[in-house]
Amino acid sequence: MRRLLFVFLLCLAPLSASAAPLDVAVSILPQKYFVQTIGGDQVRVQVMVRPGYDPAIYAPTPRQLAELSQDRLYFAIGAPFERAWLPRFIAANPHMRIVDTQRGIQRLLPTTGLPGANPNPHIWLSPPLVRVQAANILRALVAADPAHAAAFRRGYAKLIATIDSVDTRIAHELLNTNLGNRRFMVFHPALYYFARSYDLQEIPIQIEGKEPSPRELAALIQTAHRDHIKVVFVEPQFSQKAARTIAAQLGGRVVSINPLPEDWPAGMLAIAKALRTALAQ
User: Of 19, 198, 274, 279, which has the fewest beta carbons less than 10 angstroms from its beta carbon?
Assistant: First the structure.
């Protein structure tokens, strides 16, 4: 009887091990949506940059670093804080694989032409670029856990269907509509790839993480007057002082958008709706 029980427990052990979720980490909240949709119950996702924090200067907490030691995969996306922290993550967990979800994406430099400028990292705000990221995530999950490859592919198909739906709805809002203006002003240059996807032009106030000088601020106000811009978009992760100064000079208003939504489809559609309302004025 004891021998039979021992054999039974041995048979259960592989099943229990395979049922354990794959511990993974991501840099920002939108990535959690991508990985969770593909991985489903087979993944457990830790997000490094907490809600309301700036990914450019974020520093992980000691607790996050401790939890990172258990992770099998880290999905990097090119967030600025990764440049300083990825080597430390690898040192803390040498067995964790870093997955570059930017692979296959050409990130673009700011149009300022400043020497030493870093490529714009906001690739999660463009549906065409998210499709590329989704494929990179799928490959990494299948390689890490081949036993659940079929489930991951079903999750991937679900995510692609969602991306396609979001893309179509935003195109209807911004491409298939006669807008009075196609240029908009935003404090932080988060919507660069979004704008390129829908034939819009972003005018950022902040350049390379720096607020404008008085001369640059005056030039931005002149540009906004010329282009009949009455709305200045801001993000909750950043200061709103310069944006409010410009809006006051224009007799306009400040509108908040969130470039780091955990609910990616709802967040993208909210941005599209805010832009359409502003550009149709």
Answer: 19
| Cα gap 233→238, rounded to integer Å | 11
Question: Nearest Cα to 170, choosing from 269, 274, 263, 256?
Answer: 269
Is the Cβ–Cβ distance between 228 and 181 less than 8 Å?
A: yes
Place of tokens 């607020």: 211
Q: Which two tokens stand for residue 66?
A: 């401790």
Cβ burial, residue 222 (10 Å; 0-12/13-18/19+):
exposed
Q: Measured between alpha carbons, how far is 19 from 205 in angstroms, rounded to an integer? A: 49
Nearest to 281 by CA among 176, 179, 187, 174: 179
DSSP 260: S
So what's the pLDDT on residue 111? 61
Domains parsed from the chain with CATH numbers: 20-107+118-171 (3.40.50.1980), 176-279 (3.40.50.1980)
Tokens of 30: 């939108």
Per residue in 33-42, pLDDT tens? 999 999 999 9
Give per-residue pLDDT as tens, 160-184.
Answer: 999 999 999 999 999 877 787 899 9
Of 39, 58, 158, 41, which is closest to residue 99 (Cα–Cα)?
Answer: 39
Tokens of 115: 């020497």
Strand-pair category, 231-234 with 43-47: unpaired
pLDDT tens digit sequence for 53-107: 889 889 999 999 999 999 999 999 999 999 999 999 999 999 999 999 999 999 8
209, 185, 187: which is closest to 195 by C-alpha?
Answer: 185
